């Protein structure tokens, strides 16, 4: 596929969900931008396939809630944007595995 791709910008497209195979073969991906896509939940099934992401933009979507294990295993994630969603709370454990997080 595109094994050298480091940035994937899909912002402001109409993606109400992301298929679990969407990022298959993108083993060097560092940045994923999914702002303003109309997502109703964090696409964890797709994101779990790539452990190299350091920047994830999910702001300005329609995300309502998160599970306790949402970002488990994302040790390299440094930047996470969630503003502009419909979140009323974020479970403490949802962010507990983000050891490298610098900006939220």
Automatic annotation (TrEMBL):
It comes from the Eukaryota. Keywords: Leucine-rich repeat, Repeat. SMART domains: LRR_TYP (SM00369). It holds the Pfam family LRR_8. The keyword Cell wall biogenesis/degradation does not apply. The keyword Zinc does not apply. This is Leucine rich immune protein (Coil-less). It comes from Anopheles christyi.
């Amino acid at each position: 596929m595109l094994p050298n791709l480091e940035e994937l910008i899909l912002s402001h497209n109409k993606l109400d969900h992301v298929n679990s195979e969407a990022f298959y073969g993108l083993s060097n991906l560092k940045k994923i931008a999914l702002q303003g896509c109309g997502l109703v939940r964090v696409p964890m099934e797709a994101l779990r396939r790539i452990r190299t992401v350091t920047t994830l933009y999910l702001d300005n979507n329609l995300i309502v809630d998160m599970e306790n294990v949402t970002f488990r295993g994302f040790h390299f994630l440094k930047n996470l944007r969630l503003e502009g969603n419909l979140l009323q709370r974020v479970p403490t454990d949802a962010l507990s595995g983000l050891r490298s997080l610098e900006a939220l």
